[in-house]
Amino acid sequence: MTAAATARPGFFTRLADDERWLMRLMIAPTIIYIVALVGYPFFLSLYYSVTDIHIGTRTLNFVGLKNYQNIMESGAFWTALKNTFVFTIVSQLLVLVLAKILAMALVKDFRGKWLVRFLILLPWVAPISMGSIGWLWIFDSIYSPINWVLRWAGLLGPNQWPIWLGQPDLAMGSIIAVHVWRMLPLATVIILAGLSSIPQDIHDAADVDGAGFWRKLFTVTIPLVMPILLVALLFGTVFTFTDMIVIFVLTRGGPYDTTQVLASLAFFTGIQGSDLSEGAAISLFLFPVLVAIAIAFLRMARRAEVT
Amino acid sequence: MSAGWYRAQRAAGAVGHFGVLATFVTFLAFPFYWMLITTFKTTQDLHDTKNNPFIFNDPPTLHHIRVLFEDTAFIQWLINTAWVGVLVVIITLVFALPAGYSLARATGRWSQMLAIGIFLTYLVPPTILFIPFARIIANLGLQNSLWSLVLVYPSFTIPFCTWLLMGFFKAIPRDLEDAAMIDGLSRFGAFVRVVIPISVAGVLTVVIFTFTLVTQEFVYGVTFITTSSNYTVSVGVPTFLVRGDVYFWGSMMAAALIASLPIAVLYNFFVERFVVGFTVGAVK
Q1: How much helix, strand and coil, in percent to the nearest 5, is found in chain B?
Q2: What pLDDT sits at residue A98?
């Protein structure tokens, strides 16, 4: 098309040279795609949440806030809401602390660093549904290698045999462990990028002033990587808060809803339970938190612009 | 203090450093070791609780891999994934290349807000959109068809890749295009013949990311696709091989490993760029 356009001056040539219109035309398809496949479904979701739509029905009636009322009155929703927050906050705190430690260990040069890096990145780069299957087998009720090691080390009594995914008191911890495992590599590389961007002069200056390891950590390193730490936290929060894959593969929300989160509850209600309207209403509760995260992002972007 | 003390302190530091790394590597890589060893163990070995589970107590076997390839639709799932992946990569490039360029060259407040807006749509998760999509896909008659995935996956690959490419294009000096335009190319011609060829690294990054995002996607796949022969790998392995009372652990671990490793190796080369894409918006 370009060859033809350059050969004969006509509509396309004029268009291809008209800076302003060309730029608009080049971005228009992307905007249309996003509006059609992100914006439209989102508003459809708002609309469905105030109707009685089900999978397989042709008719659809306006029911007002009845779905929201139903949700509010169901115990499962409140459990899921609480679980979502517990599971996101605890796993993100752990990820931040662990990623900071790991990134500091990786900043140094040592032999075989590429191999260590590759192994450390595996949980993030491999499809999470595959990683979750690996954990399903690790947490197996009979053949769990964790139990084997604990028994071997003498830490388990004769009648003790924890069932990691089946006991209400252990399931949430197991799910959190898998999420930490999954998000840790990403947070680590993000923080690592921040750490390596600190100029060596600053470290030297702190050394000359006689600052020790901890003092340097809290007064130099952490404040300097704070913005990038926040980036890691924001992404981690979004991915953890809205995830349902790990729970879908490992526990399906069980035992007794102890690991049910909003995203998985929306799936089981809306898709497997065919109640699209109530599923839509549940999943929309994810949205306010995402908006808050987006605002935090925008503010950081603005600050970066100013400085 | 003496040199001996200093040396001892350094040695302690090195041991500590090694300890930290060893602990993390064990935690992060263990599931993959576990997949690997399970893949090649005999079923009898797997099911004997008296055995040390970390080593081969029986000689390794290829039985589970044979079952995976001969008795399940695994190969079909691989083909489906590759097919969807290739199509989504093409669609993403067609949309994101011009969009990224337009955003990189445009000036003014509006385009900046647009760029951030596009990036933020990447944060809208499938778990909010899958319910309306279930209906949209049904209305389009695409349920249980791979085309549903081809249609929907670009909704998350295009925003992120547009953002990534914008960063790449911004790094290309405007003078190059101006020179090309003096030589008789139009602005668009300069984009196609000058800018894209020198952005091979950017295009390659987008290809890899789009492909890995497609292989990792699960929520839409499990929502739209209902028959085993149309699954992609990431949906097929955990849903089809787990169903029923019998768990084919050996074959499942083989499937997980085979589906993970090539993607992991590819992605590993590009992870730095990915991080740049993540952080460029917030921290310059």
Answers
A1: 75, 0, 25
A2: 93
**How many Å apart are CA B27 and CA A211, to the nearest integer?**
32
Token digits of residue B273 = 């760029």
Closest-approach residue (CA) in chain A for B192 = A2
CA distance to A132, A245, A258, B130, B212, per residue, from A128 (Å): 6, 7, 21, 18, 11
Confidence (pTM): 0.85
CB-nearest partner of A287 from B128, B193, B222: B128
What pLDDT score was predicted for residue A5?
A: 44
8 Å CB contact between A223 and A134: no
What CATH number does domain A75-306 carry, 3.40.50.720, 3.40.50.1820, 2.60.120.260, 1.10.3720.10? 1.10.3720.10
Three-state DSSP state, B247? coil
Percentages helix, strand, coil for chain A, rounded to the nearest 5? 75, 0, 25
Structure tokens at A187: 């947070």
B69 falls in which pLDDT band (50, 70, 90)? confident
Domain boundaries along the sequence of chain B: 3-61, 71-279
State the best of A1, A26, A226, A230 to mutate against chain B, taking most chain B CBs within 10 Å: A26
- Does the beta carbon of B223 lie under 8 angstroms from any beta carbon of chain A? yes
CA A266/CA A214 separation, integer angstroms: 45
**CA–CA separation, B112 vs B103, rounded Å?**
8
Orientation of helix A168-196 relative to helix B3-39, angle to 10°: 130
- In the structure encoding, which two tokens stand for residue A69, read together? 């009322």
Query: How many helices and strands, by DSSP H and E, does chain A display?
Result: 17, 0
Helix (H) or strand (E) holding A3: helix A2-7
Give the single-character DSSP code of A51: B
Q: How far is residue A104 CA from its own chain's centroid?
A: 23
Tell me how far apart the alpha carbons of residues B148 and B138 are, in angstroms, rounded to a whole number: 9
Contact at 8 Å (CB) between B267 and A278?
no
Per-residue pLDDT band for B281 (boundaries 50, 70, 90) equals: very low
Cβ burial, residue B23 (10 Å; 0-12/13-18/19+)? middle
Of the candidates B165, B160, B79, the residue with the CA atom closest to the CA atom of residue B121: B160
Q: Around B232, how many Cα atoms within 13 Å sit in the side-chain half-sphere?
A: 30
Identify residue B282 by its one-letter amino acid code.
A
Domain chopping of chain A, boundaries: 75-306
Out of A63-72, A289-298, B137-146, B267-276, least confident range: B267-276
Give the pLDDT mean for B214-232: 87
Asked whether A179 and A240 are in contact (CB, 8 A), the reply is yes
Contact residues, A window 127-186, toward B, CB-based 8 Å cutoff:
127-138, 142-143, 145, 148, 181, 184-185
B138 neighbourhood in chain A, CB within 8 Å:
55
Q: Kindly provide the ipTM of the predicted complex, given to two decimals.
A: 0.84
| Amino acid identity at B266 | L
What is the architecture, at CATH level 2, of domain B71-279? Answer: Orthogonal Bundle (1.10)
Q: How far apart are the C-alpha atoms of A57 and A45, rounded to whole Å?
A: 17
